[in-house]
Automatic annotation (TrEMBL):
Domain of life: Bacteria
Protein name as it appears in the record: Glutaminase
PANTHER family for the chain: GLUTAMINASE
GO molecular function, one term: glutaminase activity
Span of domain Cyclic nucleotide-binding: 476-578
InterPro entries associated with the record: Beta-lactam/transpept-like (IPR012338), cNMP-bd_CS (IPR018488), cNMP-bd_dom (IPR000595), cNMP-bd_dom_sf (IPR018490), Glutaminase (IPR015868), RmlC-like_jellyroll (IPR014710), STAS_dom (IPR002645), STAS_dom_sf (IPR036513)
Gene: glsA
Length: 613
């Protein structure tokens, strides 16, 4: 599976989170199972896995520990798959118990365990797994859990023996289930299978991928293997939401707002449906059996990244509308051939991302990951906000982190069609003051593209030369004989304009074509909804007005002097006279006009191709 490099911004955030909670005191490792008492309370890991298979891991992410109760929703899903919802519902309820995980919480009369997240419900679920004998049911169990992890999992023999030796309360629960007919045969095989499922060895990376598999509708995001049928995801996540954190579940939903399951081995697995999975490992537990650091980390993740699944919903739209480089799409500024060639060579060092919809962690993270995977040659990233409707606080913080990263790497972030404040409320609050030069706000995407072009040309030592272009250096005169150029010179009128002056006015009849000797001009059209748009900016050596001169009619756009301008004008009558006076000159001029039109068509076709890619 091909994936982009992880976002360094998110990776840095997780590293800060790890440091922030590493010294969090409180809690004790589980001691009622002797093997669990050997865990080092200093161990700590955080892993995020997205539904497209990207992993972000910090700390002791590869340190093995046992699933314990985190296995319960996964085995419940396997029971649903093997026996069907109706059969499972006769054996296990779905109501929160409000009691501890090992409480003997059975419904009066029926004897059903109240939900599959307490030990009684988990033992009943284990008893429902398919298989002709204990060995076959164990194989079914390991296959199910391994599909969630994306790799073969094994049982920790020492923990299993410790579980079995000390599991007297669970044996009592098992025999009560047998008394009510929930477990139809000798409960010992079901109890042994339950002890083994709790003793399956995983690491924090596995937890995050298991959660991401649930978030991805039951399909492992890296292997593509389906771990559980899609119709069972809703029931699994529902009981995780209402019962997964034991008698802390209500508080958890209020503060974190993610379906989750904890285990006394120190792990927490949390799911944001459709987006990502979270795994946290730290073996020191609170009085309810939940990891102290794990709860704190999940609270911070939910708050900082806006992950609470009950926050006011907004339409889910992929944030990336288009992605292209300056090699394919450039600004409206036309440049001399040597600069155009330089931008063709260097254009891949600037990437444009046209964004849309809402920006939050899940929608912005793939964009930042793409930027991180763009390679060491990347110098500019342009984020265009025209179609963005909302950016939450997590997205703003992620953008600040990207700017800080770019500053350290000598790169630049260009934000177009967005301002500080408003849509990016609070932007700058966590920005290192030394990083300020690494971000630029531009009111238009076109101006952002031009800003990047200028940076690439300056960096390559190919900035525009600010000297006049004499007649022989004009693009329209390329290939003309010396005598034709002199004939043309005698028929030209040299004009001068101050900055801001209109050289050509829309709607006026064509009075000739213009050749720029010095300065810059912009061709501008008025928009129906108001305002104006730049079609192109021309510099010395370029021409304008030729198409209307040939086709006749009125000017279709304004041409404004951006700087002090000197230009020659070849009047309409003088141009027409060349037909009889100097046919070779007329043919040469028409040939260069046709070449220019052809180059424009090729450029526009290339831009359309890049935008559709």
């Amino acid at each position: 599976m091909t994936m982009h490099a992880p976002s360094s911004t998110l990776q840095a955030y997780l590293e800060r989170l790890l440091r922030r909670f590493a010294d969090l005191d409180g809690g004790r490792v589980a001691t009622y199972i002797p093997e669990l008492a050997k865990a080092d309370p200093r161990r700590f890991a955080i892993v995020l896995a997205t539904v497209d298979g990207q992993l972000y891991e910090v700390g002791d992410a590869r340190l093995p520990f046992t699933l314990q109760s985190i296995s319960k929703p996964l085995v419940y899903g396997a029971a649903l798959q093997d026996r069907g919802p109706e059969r499972v519902a006769r054996a296990i309820g779905v109501e929160p118990s409000g009691d501890a995980f090992n409480s003997i919480s059975l419904e009066p009369g029926s004897g059903r365990p109240r939900n599959p997240m307490i030990n009684a419900g988990a033992i009943a679920a284990a008893a429902l797994l398919q298989g002709d004998d204990g060995e076959a049911r164990l194989a079914r169990l390991l296959d199910a859990l391994s599909a969630y992890a994306g790799r073969p999992l094994e049982i920790d023999a020492a923990v299993f023996e410790s579980e079995r030796t000390t599991g007297h309360r669970n044996r009592a629960i098992g025999h009560m289930l047998r008394n009510y007919g929930i477990v139809s045969d000798d409960p010992e095989p079901a109890l042994e299978l339950y002890f083994k499922q709790c003793s399956v060895r995983v690491d924090c990376r596995d937890l995050a991928l298991m959660a991401a598999t649930l978030a991805n509708g039951g399909v492992h995001p890296q292997t593509g293997v389906r771990a559980v049928a899609a119709e069972h995801i809703g029931p699994i996540l529902s009981v995780m939401t209402t019962c997964g954190m034991y008698d802390f579940s209500g508080e958890w939903v209020y503060r974190v707002g993610l379906p989750a399951k904890s285990g006394v081995g120190g792990g927490i697995m949390a799911v944001l449906p459709g987006q990502l999975g979270i795994g946290v490992y730290s073996p020191a537990l609170d009085e309810r059996g939940n990891s102290v650091r794990g709860v704190a980390v999940c609270e911070a993740l939910s708050r900082d990244l806006g992950l609470h699944f009950l926050q006011p919903p907004r339409p889910a739209v992929m944030a990336l509308r288009a992605r292209y480089t300056l090699a394919g799409v450039r600004s409206k500024r036309r440049r001399p051939p040597e600069q155009e060639r330089r931008l063709e060579q260097q254009g891949d060092r600037a990437i444009v991302y046209e964004l849309q919809g809402d920006l939050r962690f899940a929608t912005l993270e793939p964009v930042l990951r793409d930027i991180a995977g763009a390679g060491a040659e990347l110098r500019f990233a342009v984020l265009d906000f025209k179609r963005v409707g909302h950016a939450d606080a997590a997205a703003v913080r992620m953008l600040e982190g990207l700017v800080n990263d770019f500053a350290a790497q000598g790169r630049h972030l260009v934000l177009t069609r967005v301002r500080r404040g408003g849509l990016l409320a609070g932007f700058g609050a966590e920005l290192d003051p030394r990083s300020a030069p690494a971000v630029s706000f531009q009111p238009q995407l076109d101006l952002g593209l031009e800003w990047c072009e200028r940076g690439l040309l300056d960096g390559a030592g190919a900035a525009a030369a600010q000297h006049p272009r004499e007649l022989a250096e004009q693009g329209l005169c390329a290939g003309l004989a010396a005598e034709d150029i002199e004939h043309l010179r005698a028929r030209l009128q040299l004009l001068r304009f101050e900055p801001g002056a209109l050289i050509v006015r829309r709607g006026e009849p064509a009075d000739g074509l213009y050749l720029l000797r010095r300065g810059e001009v912009s061709v501008i059209i008025e928009l129906p909804q108001g305002g104006s748009r730049r079609l192109q900016t021309l510099s010395a050596g370029m021409s304008f007005g030729e198409l209307t001169l040939v086709s006749g009619g009125a000017r279709s756009a304004d041409v404004r002097a951006d700087t002090a301008v000197e230009c020659w004008r070849l009047g309409t009558a003088e141009f027409a006279a060349l037909h009889s006076e100097r046919p070779s000159l007329l043919i040469g001029l028409l040939r260069q006009m046709l070449r220019g039109s052809s180059e424009t068509v090729v450029r526009l076709s290339g831009e359309l191709t890049a935008l559709d890619a």
